[in-house]
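The records we work with from here on pair a chain with its fold. Taken together, the tokens spell out the fold as the letters spell out the chain. To see the layout at work, look at the sequence and tokens printed below.
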Amino acid sequence: MGRFGIGIGIGLLAGLIIVLGFNRFNHWLAPSPDEPRQAEGKLTAPAINDAGARQPAAQQASAALAPAVSPAAKTMEQLITDTQSEITEPDAAPTISEIQPAAAPQSAPAPAPTATAAVPPTPSSKPVQATPAPSPGDTVAAVPGKPQPGIVPTPRDGDRPAWLRNAVALHAPVTGPMIAIVLDDVGVNKPDAELALNLPAPITLSIMTYADNAAELAARAHERGHELMLHVPMQPVNDRINPGPNALLVGLSPDELKRRLDWGLSRFPGFIGINNHMGSRFTQDEAGMRLVMTDLQARGLLFLDSRTIANSVGERIAQEQGVPHIGRDVFLDDEVALLGGDSVARQLAVAERIATKRGFVVAIGHPHPATVAVLQKWMADLKQRGFTLVPLSAVARRELGVAG
């Protein structure tokens, strides 16, 4: 019986060994349901072991994004550079809104009039630096923007500022594009001044501050229906050129600038505002032009920027200080000394094209005999050709959105 039990035990043990061996062989041939998870673990192990490589992958993703950011920032800098080169032509200057991309978030306000958008940094990459805001004297800040409509002039003597009180009324309806002709330097040469006075109204005459008998000239011009401006001498870029007595110069003390400006503004009554004689240097000076605009705003007067240089800050500062303003579009007789009246006729044709396209134009000339002769012929059939000659104030009202 003992031997029989031992035999049974050995048989059972041998059977167990056979079963286990068979199962192991089966395991090799067909993995158990748990094996995929083990296999999956083995497959995913390299990814887990490569977890340290995820950071380089993120950096690669950031690097992939960086080229998309860098061109935007570069484009902004390029736009500013292009603006600095383009503003050598007054009529080609872009607005601030054209400089700034619409989709770019703006940086914190800067003291300069224009702010450059800052591109947010991409994670794990170096932040893109915002372009520094220009200083007050930079040409970007000097970019003159298009005059914005809706300026409400400071009331003077009730609800009408001086520029509207002194404006020449339109006695006929405007039936076509408006053309305003301003003749500068009136009174410097007496025979030329007489030619200007004899032109049909409404030519706008800008009488020089230091003209002899300026008050008498102004009274006679007003009687003949001409609108009046005050022509204020200002410093040119060329220091060898003398702009005239009591000219506004860069570097003068505020008290002296104010004294010279007050002297000019007291020469005769009845003008709607001032425009600069020369001034290619002074109209770039922020401090000096702010003083001028403060005085004009207090007196309720208009500023016409002759735009003797593209970098003039006149219109921008006038806009900031609530001074009604407008800019010159065409010079009529810069070449009259060399080319005579033909050059004036050519420029008048340019003025007509601008007026046709935009609805108005401001042209500046001088009372040279050749200029006056061409103007007389040009004015004769102007209405028949579909244009309306208007005083400067009429164009200013339209451009600034001022009723009256």
